[in-house]
Amino acid sequence: MASEVTVEATVVRDTQPRETDGRAGSGMVIEQELASSAPSIGHVFASVIERSRDFGVLIAASPVTIATTVVRDTMSTESGRPFGDGVAVFGVPATERISVSSSRIERSARAGLSNFGSIVSLRDVHIACAAVRLDGEPFVEWLHVFEDGGGNACGCPIADGACKADAVLLWRTRRSRPRQGSFRSLRLFAIVRGSRRRQREPCG
Fold this sequence. Notes:
The protein is mostly beta strands. It has one domain. The radius of gyration is 16 Å and the shape is globular. The C terminus is likely disordered.
């Protein structure tokens, strides 16, 4: 945490949940340091993350670049936690972006890519066979944004169609506990180009 890391030409495979409670098991986690709120910085190139539990790549409040990488066969655990996202992004500051390019996300138990209150830029990304291909939802008061850099595709068994961003209320907060299976559609993917949001203020 609060470090800069570059992962290149690496295979991460078959990560396991904790024996104590059957939770966790993500392939890769890049997150801020909780004590100081200092972000980490991540670069993931030409790598494969496969057969992870909960999340293939989990990003929290830290800028990350992913390129020429494959994330596949991401599963939920047997602990009852309804995860299984290929790439999940939480609360990255509005001054930063998550960039994913020339990469494939395949066979995710829940979302191919989930975006909770962050700006995620996608270019030449193929998402195949996910229960929810692209999920975008607010996180606290922060809105999500997808930037379409072109060349993105979604589908199953192969990614050969347009991508649509949906909010399926994957993230539940204490203030809002929607009924299981509730669904609301967002506008089509290809959302914002060159936009800026005001810098977020810390929660009081």
